[in-house]
Amino acid sequence: MNIEAATIFSIEPDDTYLTIIDADYRDEYGLVLVQKRHNKFELSVNGTTLYPRLKINYPFVRWIDYKHFLIMNARTKGEEHNLFIMNIDGEVIRSFYCGDAVQDIAVSKDGIWCSYFDEGVFGEGISTEGLVLFDNTGSPTFQYHSHLPDAPSIADCYAICRGKNMTL
Predict the structure, then answer these.
(1) Strands of the sheet with 48-50, listed across from one edge
(2) Domain range spanning residue 129?
Protein backbone atom coordinates (compact mmCIF):
# COMPACT_ATOMS: atom_id res chain seq x y z
CA MET A 1 0.00 0.00 0.00
CA ASN A 2 1.32 3.43 -0.95
CA ILE A 3 0.28 6.35 1.20
CA GLU A 4 0.38 9.74 -0.44
CA ALA A 5 0.32 12.99 1.50
CA ALA A 6 -1.32 16.10 0.10
CA THR A 7 -2.14 19.53 1.54
CA ILE A 8 -5.78 20.37 0.86
CA PHE A 9 -6.06 23.46 3.08
CA SER A 10 -3.70 25.73 4.90
CA ILE A 11 -3.99 28.77 7.12
CA GLU A 12 -1.67 31.72 6.74
CA PRO A 13 0.51 32.15 9.85
CA ASP A 14 -0.76 35.70 10.42
CA ASP A 15 -4.45 34.67 10.21
CA THR A 16 -4.93 34.19 13.95
CA TYR A 17 -8.65 35.01 13.73
CA LEU A 18 -9.54 31.93 11.68
CA THR A 19 -10.83 28.72 13.27
CA ILE A 20 -11.95 25.65 11.32
CA ILE A 21 -15.21 24.39 12.83
CA ASP A 22 -16.07 21.41 10.60
CA ALA A 23 -15.06 20.06 7.18
CA ASP A 24 -15.80 17.33 4.67
CA TYR A 25 -13.40 16.20 1.96
CA ARG A 26 -14.05 13.83 -0.93
CA ASP A 27 -11.54 13.10 -3.67
CA GLU A 28 -14.25 13.50 -6.31
CA TYR A 29 -15.83 16.70 -4.87
CA GLY A 30 -13.07 18.53 -3.04
CA LEU A 31 -13.16 20.34 0.30
CA VAL A 32 -16.11 22.06 1.92
CA LEU A 33 -15.62 23.58 5.33
CA VAL A 34 -17.23 25.91 7.81
CA GLN A 35 -14.85 28.32 9.47
CA LYS A 36 -15.14 31.17 11.90
CA ARG A 37 -13.29 34.43 11.34
CA HIS A 38 -13.71 37.40 13.70
CA ASN A 39 -16.71 35.63 15.31
CA LYS A 40 -18.56 35.24 11.97
CA PHE A 41 -19.17 31.95 10.19
CA GLU A 42 -17.97 31.47 6.63
CA LEU A 43 -18.20 28.55 4.24
CA SER A 44 -15.34 27.60 1.99
CA VAL A 45 -16.13 25.46 -1.04
CA ASN A 46 -12.97 24.38 -2.84
CA GLY A 47 -11.26 27.64 -1.91
CA THR A 48 -14.19 29.97 -2.61
CA THR A 49 -15.43 31.72 0.52
CA LEU A 50 -19.19 32.09 0.91
CA TYR A 51 -21.01 34.14 3.52
CA PRO A 52 -24.30 32.40 4.27
CA ARG A 53 -27.06 34.41 5.90
CA LEU A 54 -28.01 31.55 8.16
CA LYS A 55 -28.55 31.52 11.88
CA ILE A 56 -25.97 28.92 12.96
CA ASN A 57 -24.16 28.38 16.24
CA TYR A 58 -22.97 24.74 16.20
CA PRO A 59 -22.54 23.85 12.51
CA PHE A 60 -21.73 20.63 10.70
CA VAL A 61 -21.03 20.53 6.95
CA ARG A 62 -21.21 17.48 4.64
CA TRP A 63 -21.08 16.88 0.90
CA ILE A 64 -24.24 15.46 -0.70
CA ASP A 65 -22.96 15.32 -4.29
CA TYR A 66 -20.56 17.32 -6.43
CA LYS A 67 -23.03 20.23 -6.72
CA HIS A 68 -24.63 20.20 -3.25
CA PHE A 69 -23.68 20.12 0.40
CA LEU A 70 -25.51 20.57 3.66
CA ILE A 71 -24.87 22.77 6.63
CA MET A 72 -26.65 21.83 9.82
CA ASN A 73 -26.99 23.59 13.15
CA ALA A 74 -26.73 20.98 15.92
CA ARG A 75 -28.79 22.96 18.42
CA THR A 76 -32.16 24.55 17.72
CA LYS A 77 -35.21 25.75 19.60
CA GLY A 78 -38.71 24.58 18.81
CA GLU A 79 -38.92 23.18 15.33
CA GLU A 80 -37.09 25.88 13.42
CA HIS A 81 -35.25 24.59 10.36
CA ASN A 82 -31.70 23.65 11.19
CA LEU A 83 -30.54 21.65 8.15
CA PHE A 84 -29.90 23.58 4.95
CA ILE A 85 -29.11 21.98 1.59
CA MET A 86 -27.09 24.39 -0.52
CA ASN A 87 -25.57 24.43 -3.97
CA ILE A 88 -21.89 25.18 -4.43
CA ASP A 89 -22.72 28.84 -5.13
CA GLY A 90 -24.08 29.15 -1.58
CA GLU A 91 -27.80 29.27 -2.42
CA VAL A 92 -30.15 27.43 -0.07
CA ILE A 93 -32.08 24.88 -2.16
CA ARG A 94 -34.23 23.56 0.71
CA SER A 95 -34.24 23.36 4.47
CA PHE A 96 -35.92 21.31 7.17
CA TYR A 97 -35.98 20.57 10.88
CA CYS A 98 -33.81 17.57 11.76
CA GLY A 99 -34.11 17.77 15.55
CA ASP A 100 -32.21 19.25 18.46
CA ALA A 101 -28.95 18.02 19.99
CA VAL A 102 -27.52 16.46 16.82
CA GLN A 103 -24.24 14.76 17.62
CA ASP A 104 -23.14 13.61 14.17
CA ILE A 105 -24.33 13.47 10.59
CA ALA A 106 -23.53 11.25 7.59
CA VAL A 107 -24.77 11.33 4.01
CA SER A 108 -25.40 8.21 1.94
CA LYS A 109 -27.34 7.29 -1.20
CA ASP A 110 -30.27 6.54 1.14
CA GLY A 111 -30.34 10.04 2.59
CA ILE A 112 -29.07 11.97 5.59
CA TRP A 113 -28.36 10.12 8.86
CA CYS A 114 -28.53 12.14 12.09
CA SER A 115 -27.46 10.86 15.49
CA TYR A 116 -28.34 12.63 18.74
CA PHE A 117 -26.80 13.11 22.16
CA ASP A 118 -28.65 12.75 25.46
CA GLU A 119 -30.28 16.20 25.51
CA GLY A 120 -32.04 15.26 22.28
CA VAL A 121 -32.76 11.61 23.09
CA PHE A 122 -34.28 12.56 26.44
CA GLY A 123 -35.85 15.73 25.01
CA GLU A 124 -38.78 16.10 22.64
CA GLY A 125 -39.55 15.47 18.98
CA ILE A 126 -37.64 13.50 16.37
CA SER A 127 -34.38 13.63 18.41
CA THR A 128 -35.84 11.12 20.90
CA GLU A 129 -35.29 8.44 18.24
CA GLY A 130 -31.51 8.49 18.84
CA LEU A 131 -30.76 7.84 15.15
CA VAL A 132 -32.83 8.99 12.16
CA LEU A 133 -32.51 8.68 8.40
CA PHE A 134 -34.05 11.57 6.46
CA ASP A 135 -34.57 11.69 2.73
CA ASN A 136 -33.29 14.79 0.95
CA THR A 137 -36.65 16.54 1.40
CA GLY A 138 -36.56 16.15 5.20
CA SER A 139 -39.01 13.27 5.59
CA PRO A 140 -37.85 10.65 8.10
CA THR A 141 -37.57 7.22 6.45
CA PHE A 142 -36.06 5.36 9.43
CA GLN A 143 -36.43 6.12 13.13
CA TYR A 144 -34.40 3.87 15.42
CA HIS A 145 -36.60 3.63 18.51
CA SER A 146 -39.88 3.51 16.53
CA HIS A 147 -38.76 1.04 13.87
CA LEU A 148 -36.71 -1.21 16.18
CA PRO A 149 -38.68 -1.32 19.45
CA ASP A 150 -36.90 -4.48 20.65
CA ALA A 151 -33.39 -3.19 19.93
CA PRO A 152 -31.16 -1.79 22.70
CA SER A 153 -32.07 1.75 23.63
CA ILE A 154 -29.89 4.65 22.48
CA ALA A 155 -29.07 7.26 25.13
CA ASP A 156 -26.25 8.92 23.15
CA CYS A 157 -25.03 8.18 19.62
CA TYR A 158 -21.72 10.02 19.53
CA ALA A 159 -20.38 9.02 16.13
CA ILE A 160 -21.63 7.57 12.88
CA CYS A 161 -19.84 6.85 9.63
CA ARG A 162 -20.60 5.40 6.25
CA GLY A 163 -20.14 1.65 6.05
CA LYS A 164 -19.55 -0.38 2.92
CA ASN A 165 -23.31 -0.46 2.21
CA MET A 166 -23.67 3.33 2.66
CA THR A 167 -22.19 4.46 -0.62
CA LEU A 168 -22.99 7.82 -2.17
Answers:
(1) 18-26, 30-37, 40-45, 48-50
(2) 101-163
